[in-house]
Predict the 3D structure of the following.
Amino acid sequence: LIRRRKKVFILSFLLLFMIGVIVALILTPIYTSEAVIRIEDQEIPENIIQATITDYAEERIEKISQQILSRPKLLNIIEDLDLYPELKEKETPTELVKKMRKDIAIETIAARMQSKIGTKMSVTVAFTLAYDGKDPVKVQKVAERLSKFFLEEDIKVRERKIAGTTD
């Protein structure tokens, strides 16, 4: 069967290969820049502050994400780095912010750990913050700026909680 249909197999393979090469050359490349942020335990002894700062990592990530992905911060990044120049004339600022939020991905990284009482549980130990775009330099700068904002906001939140605990 293969010997008799050798020409058909070769032509089919070459045709599919050429279509794949053409599609790969025509499509615009999308670059992803990703930052992995590790979640560390508090450095203040637990017997001093008990459970006041120990909220779940996922909740902290969600709260800070809402601050970081706010409209003013994202519009500031869009303006500073001249993101989406082809859409600025056609779209409203709200649509640009929606587009940027779609291009940002935040995913938690969990690890299986054993608690003090011996039960196994899944604990968030880190998370990834990624941004997709067409310009590799801008993509890297956006991911860098978002991770910097995230770390700064986390420090602010912790300082407020520690100040409240101290009071």
User: Anything to note?
Assistant: The helical segments are 6-26, 46-49, 57-68, 71-81, 85-88, 93-103, 136-166. The chain is about 55% helix and 20% strand. The two ends are 85 Å apart (CA to CA).
